[in-house]
Amino acid sequence: MTGNHGNIVRSSLIREAMTLSRSIVSKGKNVKEAVDRALNVLGTKNSGVDIEIIETEYKGIILGLGSKPAVVRVTLKQLNNAEEHPEHHLNLVKLLEMEINNIDFTEDSKSEEAVELKQAAAIQEDLHGKVWVREGHIFCKDAPNKYPLVSPAQGVKLYKNNEAVEKTVIVSENDILTVELSDEERAPKWELLLSDNKMEALLKIVPGVRIYRRLKDAAPSNFIQLEVEEKIIPIMIDSGSMMNEIRAIGIVHGVDYTEIARACTSDEAGTFIIAKGNPPTPGKNGCFLPIKEVTIKKGVMERPDGTVDYREIQEFPSVERGQVLGVIQPPMPGIPGQTTTNEFVPPPEALPLTVQEGRGVVLVEDGTKVVAIEAGQPDIKMIGTTAKISVVPKLVVGTDVSLQSGNVRYIGDVEVLGSVQDGMLVEAQGNILVHGSVFKSKIIAGNSVIIHKNAISSTISAGKSSMLEQELTGILGGVYNQLSQMMVAMHQIMSVSAFKVRTIDRTGLGPLLKILCDGKFKSVPPLIISLCNKIKTGKCELDPEWLSLAELLHQNFITPQASGLRSMYDLEVFLKKVEMVYKSAATEKEAVNCFIKASYLQNCELYSAGDIQIAGNGIYNSKLYAKGMIQLDGYVRGGEIFAEKGVKIREAGTKGGIPTKIQVPKDQTIMINCALEETVIQIGNKTHTFTRETQLVRARLDEIENLILQ
C-alpha cells in the first residue's frame, strides 16, 4: 500500500487492533491533547471511554527546566464486535500481518504508525491459558487443561472478585482482578543559615519527590509474579518563595543567583553556598627592617672555579660603632570587609613594633632607627610585636689558646685565630670560631661552634644555654600558672566585706601571700626555690633578666616579710614581668642559630641544640647528638650518632672493624650513600644491621611502624 489510500487503511487497521486491547496510554503537552490523541487512535468519542489522568503537565520552575508532558490512559467501556465474531478477529490478524510485511520499515520505522502496528501485532499472539499485565491491568485467557496463575507482590493488595488474595491463585476470564497501589508525595525541605561571622549564607535542601506506583508489565505466561514499578519525579523548590526568605533575613550582598537556581532544581540533598561576603584584608604590623646583615649565614664561599672553600665560611655578621642596624617600619592599616547582610567588618588592628634597647644599641630619630654604639654581632629576638635588639661584643684571641693565654670565658662571641691546645677551655655565651684545630679541649658555646680544621679527643657543645633555658622555661611556666591562680584568689578575698583593706594598705601584700603559700598554694615556695637555684647555678650563661627575676621571686614569695608588693596593682605588674620572661624564653630560638661545623673528628663528643655538619673527611670513633639534623660529607667509622631531625651520611661503617650505630626518632629518616657491614641503624625502636655493603640506603618507618629500607 502506498499514498493516502495506504495511510487510511493502516490507520483503520491500527484502530481496530487497539480496540481489541480495550485501552491506550497517550502523552501530550497537556491533558486535552493527550486525550485527543488517544481518541483519534481508538476511533471513538468521549462518551464511549473511561479516562484516567496518570500525570498532569509540569512547566518547570526556572527557564522551563524540569518540564514534563501530561500522560492519560483511555479505556473503552465495552468490547468491540470483533470479539463477538472470531472469524473477523482472524481476518484482522491476517490483515495486520500482511500490512506489517508490506511496510518499508527502513523508511517508516520511526513513524508513530509503524510503532503502533508492531504493538497491535504483538497483542494478537496465542494467549489461551495465559495471564499477563499490560498498562497496569491484569488480563487472562481461558484454555482447556490450562490454568493461569497469579502471585501477589509485596506492597500490592490483590483482589479477586473483591476478595483479598495473599498467595498464588488461579484466575480466569470471568474473574474481576483489581489491585490497590498508593502513590506518595514528599514535599521538599530547605533551610537558610548564616555563618557566625555572616560571611557566608548557606542553603541546606532535601529535595521533594512524587512517587507513582503501578504494576509492571508482564508478558503472557502460565504464571506471573506481580511486580511494582515506581516512577519518581522530583519536586522542585519554588525559587520565588526562596528569594523572599533570602531578602527577609537581610541577605543582600554577594548573592549567587546561579547557585540558588542549581539548589532549587537539584535532585540530591546538599548544602549550597548562595552568598559570600568580602572578608577584611589584614594590615601589617610594624616591623624591623635591617639595613646591615644581622642574621647568621650557614652557607660557604664558592671559588670562581665552582669549588667550595670551607675555610672561608662567613657565618657571623658584625657591626661597627655608629652603624645603623635598621629602621622601624610603622604599621599599615588593613582594608574593611562586608558581610552578606551588608554590614561593615573592620580589619584586625595593625600594631606598632615595640623595641627594647639591649646592650650596645640606641634608638634615634624619634625611635625610628636603631644604631650600634658598640662593635660586635647584632642579636635580634622577636616576641610577637616586641623586638629586643642588642649588639653582642666579640673577643678576638690572636694566638693559640694555651697555657700561656689561659682558658677563655666570655659573655659575647669568641674568635680564636690559632688552635686550642691540650686541656684548655673556651666558653662563650655567643658563638665560637676557631680557625685552627682543637686538641683534647672543651669548647662550650651558647650559640654555635665553627672549627675550620680538626677536633681530636675533645668535647664540643653548642647551645648549652638553650638547654638550660629550656629547663628553666618549664619550671617558670608552672610558677606563672600558680601565681595567676593566686592573684584570682586574692581578688576574691579582698571582695569580702569583712576583709580589712586598710590593713593591706599599711602592711602590704606580704602577710596575705604568706597565708596563701602556707595554705592552698603550698607548692609555690618549693617551685620558686627550685627555679632560683637553677638560675643561680647557670648565672654565667643566662641573660640578666633571669637573674633579676630570680631575685624578685625569692624576695616576694620566699621572704614575704620583705616583699615589695604593696598593692594588687604591684602584683599585676610583677605577674606581667613573669609572663614576659616566660613567653620570651618559650619562643626563643632553640636551633636556628645553634649548630656545630668542623672538618674532621676523632674520639670526640659533640652536642648541638641545632644541626651538626662535618664538611671534611669525616669522623672516627666519636659520639654525636643533635636536636636538629646531622650531615656528614665524608665517612663515619665507629661510634654513635643520634639526630632528632634525620641523618645524611656519605659512607658509614668499617670493613670488619668497630660497629657504627646511627639512630633517629620514629618519624625521621636515615640516608646513607654507602652502608658497610656491621653498620647498625635504629629508627624509633626498630633496628637493622647491615651484613654486606649496601648502596643508596633510605630507611624510615611506615604507618604501622615497620622498618622500610629503600
Automatic annotation (TrEMBL):
Q: Provide the RNA-binding protein KhpB N-terminal domain boundaries.
A: 25-77
InterPro entries named among the record's database cross-references: FapA, FapA_b_solenoid, FapA_N, Jag_N_dom_sf, KhpB_N
Tell me what this protein is called. FapA family protein
State the organism of origin: Paenibacillus cremeus
